[in-house]
Amino acid sequence: MTTKKRKITAEELQRQLDANPEYQKMMKEKEEKMRIFRAELEKDEEGLVQEIKTKGIDIDSVWDLVNINHPFLDNKFIGPYKEVYSILVDHLDKPHHPRIREGIIRALTEKDARDIAKDKLLDNFYNETDKNLRWVLANALTTILTQTEKKKNPDIELVKKGLV
Question: How large is the average pLDDT for residues 140-164?
Fold first, then answer.
């Protein structure tokens, strides 16, 4: 004999979760871990953000420079930021949390960054051991390299496709 499970509404589920002390404890712990993680990231990129602000670009995070023209994102910063490419390139060689490094790389994923960022991104690509960051670097290089340069660096496409 099978028993039919009663369906509940989202409202009923939320009431059950609100009344469940174990769930509430788990959520508070999760929120505290996220608060600590965000604080660590903020401290990690503090110097980078301050350097960028000296160029007149008001950001709170390097991530404010990523996807700035995306129609569904509410970005703090919108506009060109060519004057900070050199700062971003310098920070590629500084020790940053992988999440901040990813933001730096993605902020350099602009055709206009090609001349200043290409060599450093290539160096980082061939020396990167983190699989995710290597893919992010491959993605950036796919955007900024010419077709001839891409052919000279076939590993980029292999990494981007997840084949290595």
Answer: 91
Q: What is the pTM of this model?
A: 0.83
Q: Count CA within 13 A, CB hemisphere, residue 48.
A: 29
Amino acid, single-letter form, for residue 66: V
- Residue spans per domain, the chain: 45-160
Distance CA 157, CA 138 (A): 7
The stretches of 61-146 forming alpha helices (DSSP H) are 85-91, 98-107, 114-127, 131-144
Mean pLDDT of 117-144: 95
Structure tokens at 105: 């790389």
Examine the pLDDT at 35 and tell me if it is beyond 80. Answer: yes
Give the Cα separation of 100 and 107 in Å (integer): 10
- The separation between CA 52 and the C-alpha centre of its own chain, rounded to angstroms, equals 17
